[in-house]
Amino acid sequence: MADALRLDRVSKRFGEATAVNDLSFAVREGEVFGFLGGNGAGKTTSLRMVLDIIRPTAGRIEVLGRAPGRENSAELGFLPEERGLYRTMTALDTITYFGRLKGMTAGDARRGGRTLLDRFGLDASSKVTVDKLSKGMAQKVQLATAVVNDPKLLILDEPFSGLDPVNQGLLEDEIGRASKNGATVIFSTHVMQHAERLCDRLLLLAKGNKRFEGTQGEARRLLPARLAVTARDDPGQLPGVAEAAPAGTGAGVDGWREWRVRLDVGVETGDVLEAATARGFPLRRFEEQRTSLHDVFLHVVGQEESR
Amino acid sequence: MSASLNHFLLVAAREFRQIAGTKGFWITLLILPIAIAAGPIVGRFIDKSDTQRLMLIDRSGREAGAIRQQFDLDHQRAVLSALSRYTERHHLERADPQALWAQHGRWYSDADVARFVGAGGAPAALARIKRVAAADTPAFDPPKPHTEVVPVPAGIAAAPPERIDALLQPYLHPGEKGGDKKAKALDGALLIPAEFGRGGTGVRLWANSRPDADLVQTLQGVLTRDLRTGYLRANGLSPAAVQTADALVPAIAVSAPPPGGGGKEQVVIRSLVPLALAYMLLMSLMLSGQWMLQGLIEERSNKLLETVLACVSPHELMYGKLAGSVAAGLTMILVWVGCALAAGYAGQGAIADIIRPALAPLTSPWTILAMIYYFLAGYLIVSMIFLVIGAMSDSMRDAQSYLMPVILVIMMPIFILMQVMLRGAGGAGITAMTWFPLYTPFTMLARLGTGVPLWEVLGTCAMLAVVIGIELMLLGRVFRASLLRAGQKPNFAALGRLMRRERD
After folding, report:
1. DSSP label at B180?
2. What is the 3-state secondary structure (H, E, C) of chain A?
3. Buried (b) or exposed (e) across B328-339, using 16+ Cβ within 10 A?
4. Is the overall model pTM greater than 0.80, yes or no?
5. CB A98 to CB B298 under 8 A?
6. What does the alpha-carbon distance between residue A47 and residue A64 come to, in Å, rounded to a whole number?
7. B96 belongs to a structural domain
8. Are residues B184 and B92 both part of a single domain?
9. Other beta carbons less than 10 A from residue B444's beta carbon
10. Is residue B254 part of a domain?
11. Which of A53, A79, A88 sits opposite B309 (nearest CB)?
12. What contacts B451, CB < 8 A, 6 or more positions away?
């Protein structure tokens, strides 16, 4: 599968400050890719370089196999973190204008705009000027400007920030729809729940440096697995178990007790179960406690930088 | 069409629509047409009160006839003068080159007026003129009589002198004390007693406001002549000698500009179009520049720029905005110039008299080309400054701190320049201003009507091209770097650094 986006040793410096440092990663076609990091991690700067709004100090970027530039805009969709619209333009004119800036004909852009407004439940407001729309309606129009050209690569910078729950759902649906239609979606966020629900792969950034790139499973494996176990004996004697502590106080019924178990880094829960079976270690419950991306993020990026 | 050109045109069209969508644009656009249309209406309204209404109560039985005759003579003199200017304006002297109305450089004496009336007056003259006048020659509009003598009501004619004052009040101030409010007021009433001229008896004049100076002068002239004639006769001069003495009037040759200007007046009028263009350039620049600046600040404060910049480059955005703003300004100018042309060629009267000769400098295509060039150059030089201010400001309040000194620097010298040009002055100061690029377009536009050496036109055009090129490059860098910048506004040192930086 070809890469929709590739960054190769990209750095960006503003005077003395380094916003992005020697960053390399690739996003494959059709992927939903999460760009995770705290404030000031370099997410927006990286996305701006991809869009050619700013240029890298060093390194090379390829967008859909080409250098960054406005000639790519016909195949790109972009929703910035800080959003706004022309207050005196109507909803439909706004979408049409941005569609035309992306190389669509006036007719196609208008038709695309009507379809989107219909889908977002704004068909009755197509001729209403933006200053008369509610905030939620304006957010939908903003999203429509990003996807009116059915982009091959959809870049969303903190897309969920400021959205009400209804529009968050709408946005997740649109990401799903774009992905289903073969588009590549890249979105930056520091809300891990969205990344968990949507991302195929993700990249963790901290202070402009890459800390991790891979699938969610690979990310979780960065932290030791945890188990909830009910056993008569101490599971700490099993191979691969780093720590086992009884949950609650006192003995359980007939000697069965609840245990909280932490495995060594890299040890799979299946290996521990296999070892217990081989040794005749009696178990009434063996439940994997799934590591959240939030925990991985805190672990990789660090408490301070995640804020 | 290339993507870049498409982006440029789309941004320009949106900018134009945004400016044209403001109320301020339409109010400004319509000010001049409304003023031109309202001019003649206001003029007519003012003209209505021109004719003085006078009641002549002549109990001497000698003076009323002479006064009426003088009023008539003065009116015919005004008609003859107007006819003379009419024939001169429309080049109709060939209708009768010997006629008095075909001889322009003279003051018409009483004898001249008598000859004119004797030859049939205005109707006879117009009949001759009609034979040579073109079909589209506007009709002659004769002046209204200065004074209209109204009949004396029987009650006043027979009233004793001491009651006349009270009896005249309803005529001088109708509507007061329950009178007829719709009745036309008298401007004045003159009582000439039966014993006028004997034992120092004078006349009495009532007026409903400050008496008209011309009217008083005419009355005084007629009455003085009567007194003087009586005196000369009483002292032994024969009636024929008295009449001859009365008719002694020096011939006065008059050298006045032709209708619509001449001499210094002509120089000023020929400067009007260039000066007006310079002024229009200044006003439309200030307005459309501020509208463009507001639009850019809206884009910045509404966080729109990042979305736009993902589709168009900063240069496409900058040039598109400049083009949209220039188009809005040019639209205003075209409408104003169109209205002025329509008023000049479709209308008559004072406005047409000024506008037609004022358009004389525009007969040369080179002058028109030079004007268009200076106009566009002026727009680019100043609009670019407004654009950069907009790019550096998050709000209009922010922008004001940059804007006020810039506006002062642009406007103050230009207003001084216009005053100097209108006084027909010039000199080294104006020539020096011509070579200061910020003022060059305005100064050259203002000077074009009075004639500028070719080398100066070519030199300033070349200088402007170079300066605008440098300005677009340096301020273009500031514009690009400031678009997404937040926080503290750049000082002069930071601006210098931004100008040197090629690309972020």
Report:
1. -
2. CCEEEEEEEEEEEECCEEEEEEEEEEEECCCEEEEEECCCCCHHHHHHHHCCCCCCCEEEEEECCECCCHHHHHHEEEECCCCCCCCCCEHHHHHHHHHHHCCCCHHHHHHHHHHHHHHCCCHHHCCCEHHHCCHHHHHHHHHHHHHCCCCCEEEEECCCCCCCHHHHHHHHHHHHHHHHCCCEEEEEECCHHHHHHHCCEEEEEECCEEEEEEEHHHHHCCCCCEEEEEECCCHHHCCCEEEEEECCCCCCHHHCEEEEEEECCCCCHHHHHHHHHHHCCCEEEEEEECCCHHHHHHHHHCCCCCC
3. bbbbbbeebbeb
4. no
5. no
6. 14
7. yes
8. yes
9. 25
10. no
11. A53
12. none
A161 interface with B at CB cutoff 8 Å = no
Range of the domain at B370: 3-40+261-500
Q: Name the DSSP letter for residue B143.
A: P
Q: What residues of chain B lie within 8 A of the CB of A51, using their CB?
A: 309-310
What residues in A contact B299, CB-CB < 8 Å? 84, 86
Asked if A133 has any chain B CB less than 8 Å from its own CB, the reply is: no
Does ipTM top 0.85?
A: no
| Residue B88 pLDDT | 81
Full 3-state SS string of B294-323: HHHHHHHHCCCHHHHHCCCCHHHHHHHHHH
| Together in a domain, B203 and B125 | yes
- Contacts with B345 (C-beta within 8 Å, 6 or more apart), sequence order: B352, B356
- Given B247, B282, B299, the domain boundary residue is B247
DSSP B253: B
Confidence band, pLDDT 50/70/90 cuts, at residue B261:
very low
CA distances from B35 to B39, B49, B277, B282, B470 (A): 6, 22, 17, 19, 40
Q: Chain A residue closest to B484 (CA)?
A: A53
B201 and B53 inside one domain: yes
| Residue A1 confidence (pLDDT) | 66
Residues ≥6 apart with Cβ < 8 Å to B154: none
Looking at B219, B247, B275, the residue that finishes a domain is B247
Q: Touching check for A48 and chain B: CB below 8 Å?
A: yes
Give chain B's domain count. 2
Distance from CA of B2 to the nearest CA of A (A): 10
Position B183 in a domain: yes
**Is B255 within the bounds of a domain?**
no
Distance CA(B344)–CA(B350), nearest Å, equals 9
Say yes or no: B212 and B356 in one domain: no
Tens of pLDDT along A135-164?
888 889 999 999 999 999 999 988 888 888
Instruction: Find the residue in B nearest to A57 (Cα).
Output: B504
Which residue(s) pair with A215 in the sheet?
Answer: A201
Kindly tell me the sign of the dihedral angle through the C-alpha atoms of B14, B470, B414, B378. negative
